[in-house]
Amino acid sequence: MFTRGVGLNVIRILRNITTIAENNSAAVASSLETLKNKDTELTGTESLISKPQRMEISEISKILRPGALSSVYVNKSEILQELVKLGTKLYVIEKEPEAIKLILSLKFDDIKDTIIFLKDLGIEIEDIGNLITKNPFIFKENLEDLKVRINYLQYKKFTSEMIVRIIRNNPFWLSHSTADIDNRLGFYQKNFMLSGNEIRSLTTKCPRLITFSLDSVKCNIFSLKEEMGFTPEEMKLIILRRPQLFKSGRYKLLQTFDYLHNKMKIPLETIVETPEILSCRERRLRERHLFLVKLGKNQYSPKKPNYIGLKTLISGTDAYFSTEIANSSVQMYNEFLKSL
Among 3, 82, 172, 332, which lies 20 to 30 A Cα-Cα from 236? Predict the structure, then answer.
């Protein structure tokens, strides 16, 4: 805690940092050094910056422009220098006060074994940097726990290539315990009647789904089954073909489904064949469908001439859709949209 006089002095210095931070990082460094010296003078102990528990780094970082704090420290900190070499985006980590506080509390020796561990798994250097950028809290995990989590995947017959893809595409995977991952894989295997190969395929294709909120997934399971009317067999096909759907908002899914099935009269079997159609915003789907209706080209049955596939309907820009799919013009499509 600061005394009243000390606190006022520190506040003045911090205000000075706020003003000059807009100019250049050298000025920021100078002002932080002043703060450091002032603290030593007043307390006779180590600087505020070297003792996060006495004045939180996060409190200073809040008043600096993005990247200012790390730019000040990068020339003095071995750990920041090494993270930069890996391609870590420090300005992103700075946005999370607890993350930057964690990084600045560590030495490079504290994290190098974890980095070597990731590299030995087969993860490329640039991917390691990206992983750290998105999940710097991996450095809170015990190295032995990380090894156990990889051993679990190997025991479940995930190949080295699968494991690398899982970790690369879901940087938070290794922050989950083995027990948690096992429960989650069991949940998907049971609810969608998946074989061993199918659960491995699903996990590798969309690893973020496995660690996603199970409550949200359960809501979507209920919606697809009870509100939309898909059978368990159809839901299995949907999750294997488009697992990202189960991360969508339930209301958004229902909106799109209602227009697709009840207004456009698209049968469930056709939706199962192209489940990504449910990812489309209802407004975009409606606009394009109605334009085709106006042109007399809303033909979605593959058994009839001039068939337009659902995937084709929602893909590409408006310019591509209006000229290549609707065989019209961008101007005509824009005028049509204004009339809605």
Answer: 172
